[in-house]
Write the structure tokens for this entry.
Amino acid sequence: MEEESKTNWRLIYMGVLLIFIIQVVIYALISSFFL
Amino acid sequence: MNYIDWLVLGLTLVAIVGYGTWRTRKQKDLDSYLRGGRDSKWFTVGLSVMATQASAITFLSTPGQAFESGMGFIQIYFGLPLALILISVFIVPLFYKLNVYTAYEYLEGRFDLNTRLLTAFLFLIQRGLAAGITIYAPAIVLSVVLGWDLTKLNIIIGLMVIIYTVSGGTKAVNITQKWQMAVIMGGMFFAFFMIIEHISPFMSFSEAVKFAGESGKMNLVNFDFDFESRYTFWSGITGGLFLSMSYFGTDQSQVQRYISASSVKESRMGLMFNAILKIPMQFFILFTGVMLFVFYQGHQQPISFNQEVIELVENSDRAEAGNVILTSYEEIEAQKLKLVQHSVPNSNQEVQRLQSAQLELKASYNELAHEIDEDFPTKDSDYVFIRFILDYLPHGAIGLLLAVILSAAMSSTAGELNALASTSMNDFIKRLGERKLTEKSQVQLSRFVTVIWGILAISFALVANLVDNLIELVNILGSLFYGTILGVFVCAIFIKRINARSVFFAAVFAESVVLLLFIGEKLHWFEREIGFLWFNVIGAMAVIILGLLFQLIWKNDANLYDEKRMND
């Protein structure tokens, strides 16, 4: 049970970071598009 | 404003304040008063964390920031998701395990009373001043555009917050913030769609984005290593990380929000909610500002959005010089409006050229105002969004948007007063007081302390006189103290070998260094300017490095000191 909840959190954190990285990539693309 | 606006504004605010006060009318013990009885769900916590951070300044000043300098400001939030993850992993379980009321309580167990009191004291100074600004900032703007009396407005906003914060404590703050957030987001979406609606007769949405991009407003990310630029990817990801770590991890106004969750899990979920949504929300607000920039290419754009600047020039002996600038400005404005409103093909470059010429005239006009009264704040970016609301939104919607701004002012001020009260109560009065108080008198005393902080915040608001962009000012003020507080917490959690005396002196030195650098910068001692986000990094690193150094120097003394403490 303990192990499972740990894994879940790790997944959530990875997901949050992934969403952040995708956003930065999109923003960088928008910026470079108008350069 | 007409009676419909007053009705919408009045009903929205009274409903929220009334609901918060009524729902939490029975607060008997200190735990439910200061931690909301620890039964909040993640959604309430998440929204409450968001509402505490998003003050009225966010909604008044951020669109203006994007209007003026584009969307690069978003980079300040790049450190936030990682910071919230680190806080979820390391800090949340710690606060729950130790069952603390304030973040600083933890430091006494790890170090000593002096360190706890020092960090709590730094927090009280910083947040106490900031609470004044969160009331003053919207009040000054509203008083200028609506002609309301600034003093009365400061007092009204302050008193409304005091009513429910005092009566219902943390719980009232949390549940009112949920509704305030709903009003805020609803109002902002409405304003955004109204801007697009007004642009549509002369430009499609994609043309508007293209125009904004060509005018340099879509500069979201800057990867250059430029130490002087306020907002780059690197300053955002490092300085922003430190700022967010300190703000969410060690600032009681945020800590109090997430320790009111019913469990570690709910608390973490609330923080992750913010880690995902904060940047898109800021993107949306900044983008609203950029669309406002496009909007004002096809609509009459005043030489200053702050009417007081124009009045200052017109009523002075330099009025004639002002009129010369104003006439040229209006001639260019007429040419520009003609091009944009008639959607003349391939005219973007010409419009941008005219816009640049207007900016130069605007700068000369501001310079003239500055010559007339050098203390007069001529920067008008904080007035852009509110002018649009008043000039172009239908009645009813104006009332709603004013409710948005006042709700935001109230929600963050409430979070701040609540935290100031609990820190004064827990870290000073209860900790240092000799008399043992009953539960009931502790709640009464907490209420009294909240009132005192409320009055102090209103007083700061009444004497405040600001010149810089308001949203930057709040962040600058935070950055001066946050680094040191964060450094102390990093030492406490991660560097076991540092003990109380070393960290205490390291913190005192680090804070002095940051303040000296800030004063030095203001007095132009250095050739280069230091972006304020770096103060967070400098403060935190100084505490850690000096802490380790003192620990080495006082190695033997420190051990003796620790042993003595253990025996005490």
Remarks:
- Chain A has one helix and no strands.
- Chain A has a mean pLDDT of 83.
